Amino acid sequence: MSADIQESTEELRGLSVDFFVSFVQVFGLPKSIGQIYGLLFVSPDPLPMDEIVNQLGISKGSASQGLSLLKSLGAVSSIAIHADRREHFEADLNVSRIVTHFFENRLEPRLEHGDRRLEEMVALARLAKRSDRTQGAASVLTRIQALQKWQKRGRNLIPMVVRWLKR
Amino acid sequence: MSADIQESTEELRGLSVDFFVSFVQVFGLPKSIGQIYGLLFVSPDPLPMDEIVNQLGISKGSASQGLSLLKSLGAVSSIAIHADRREHFEADLNVSRIVTHFFENRLEPRLEHGDRRLEEMVALARLAKRSDRTQGAASVLTRIQALQKWQKRGRNLIPMVVRWLKR
DNA sequence: CCGTTTGTTCATTTCAATTTGAACAAAAGC
DNA sequence: GCTTTTGTTCAAATTGAAATGAACAAACGG
Questions:
Q1: At residue A153, does pLDDT exceed 80?
Q2: How far is A142 from chain B, CA to nearest CA, in Å?
């Protein structure tokens, strides 16, 4: 490989790593996940873990953990390479998978939890309103109920987004 | 105020704080922001900063910074109270504001940046493909172009979401 | 079997983001 | 003008999440 090709390959790698680091951080995932995926994304051939460790300068531990998360997201898959017993990894172009995972695992549980919290809040605010017949208590109840509407609206949005991305 | 009312008021406050801490964390905002908003949300009357500091047990610094962020989001507004020179704060039920702010300030700049990165990546991959006529170089270019499509799709989604929430 | 390669786990370290609190500024009342 | 109250700023401390790397396990080859 000539010197300038190697150079631009490295530059491409850097851009890809950067791109995906920024991407995964939107979803609150660690930087190393973005680095690994970014490297695999522009690699023409599947890479073994020690290549990933070397090229990114990260630890074996990070690479191992990162790869297993990425596999669980369906964002990378492992490939058998003839006459090499090491596991090789390849990026899947599964943008919707990682996003869907974010919605279903990060967002959905919180929304679920939030629903229950809001129920309890309504109950307490009703109680307060009954004993303490002030304008204040009533308006707090009203607000909480308005918030419940927003919560529902948000939840309805998620399946729409997922569908749009899968379409 | 009777003992049981005061008690359930405190419980309500705790639930609200919890709810909003969890909410803001989805958007990568600090916990204190959620605490402050949660407290104001269930307060019948506007509160001065020192009340917020006392009730939440946070520092003056956090409260000051948090309130100014919340004001900038349009999530709280300040209210003048007769014969009290302290600034009083009230929660606005502006769920869409905070979400819109997230999209426009956190997401949009990243997407913008991502667009530029992808352009550079395409350029480099084209170069690589021209000099190095292997299957690998060509397939890397194809992937990057596929990613560009996803990026566009994501960007188109945002105005839709914002509209849905504002509607 | 035994040594070597490959990969995982988890206690410790590192690092970044948030919170604190003390110093400072601004405004108000006396 | 001086004191007190109110609010901001920012360097330092705290905290929590992620990365490290050493110890361990598993799989393979000879």
A1: yes
A2: 10
